[in-house]
Specification:
Subcellular location: Cytoplasm
Keywords: Cell cycle, Cell division, Chromosome partition, Cytoplasm, DNA integration, DNA recombination, DNA-binding
Strand content: under 5%
Subunit structure: Forms a cyclic heterotetrameric complex composed of two molecules of XerC and two molecules of XerD.
Shape: elongated
Helix content: 40-55%
Strand order of the largest sheet: 1-2-3
Oligomer: single chain
Structural class: mainly alpha
CATH topology of the largest domain: hpI Integrase, Chain A
CATH class of the largest domain: Mainly Alpha
Radius of gyration: 28 Å
Distance between the termini: 71 Å
Largest sheet: 3 strands, antiparallel
CATH architecture of the largest domain: Orthogonal Bundle
GO biological process, one term: cell division
Protein name: Tyrosine recombinase XerC
Number of helices: 13
Length: 300
Amino acid sequence: MRDDIARFIDHLTVAGRSPHTLAGYRADLETLTGQLQPKTLAEAQAIDLRKALAQQHARGLGSRSLARRLSAWRQFYQWLQHSGQREDNPASALRAPKRDKLLPKALPVDGAAALLDRIEGDDELDARDRAIFELVYSCGLRLSETVGLNLQDVDFSDQLLRIRGKGGKERLAPIGAEAMRRLQTWLAQRQAAADEPALFTGRHGRRLGGRQIEKRLRDWAIKTGASQHVHPHMLRHSFASHLLQSSGDLRAVQELLGHANLSSTQIYTALDFQHLAKVYDQAHPRARQAPAKPDTDEDS
């Protein structure tokens, strides 16, 4: 069957698949060959492939990798069908396990405060950066929402921010005192073209782009000694997680984030539970109590 694998790879090569894809498919099929022994690839039935998939899952292979391997198997057996070596495709009805749901990464409360407090400098762009990231953290903004903000979206009298979210939906969010103070500092230094409505502008006086914001936060995180890569969406996740930890009000967090469905917000309850579990382990007097030694006194 190794000859069949070689011919299949030749077929994919002619079809223009990348060397990386070819190497991955070859490895996936050779792994399957080892699992099926003494059967060959051509003799395998759906139950054999299902067993091989389950074994790989049990060994810790992630859902993404399993889906890729299953795709390689399907294409191989489809090629065997077209070349007249099989009448069926035993992989056609198989499904990979559901993709692992990755929890959003959030900074701890003190980590978010430490990062923001260290964004300081004499340049007006330093003041702008502090205002941007304080506002993102204060209002739970998406990157696209931050980029799209205009001067008229800030209500200084009521300390509210009008946000245009996904699908053009608008929402209002309160602006925290520190974010408001940093906004006022930035606007006192803001230099923009006369026809530029953007709240945040670059050196040329035009609207700041998302890539620039991402780069500035990455650079600040490195300068301030952050222990992990920090991106703007992490500040949004931190906003949601910290607000939920303090209030426990899932509906309010949903409204502030601009989520259409509560299910999108519920992922933060997992982060909140992780926080509570950690607090419990550290604080509860019996959380980590050592097991009692067995009593050996015969008279007891």
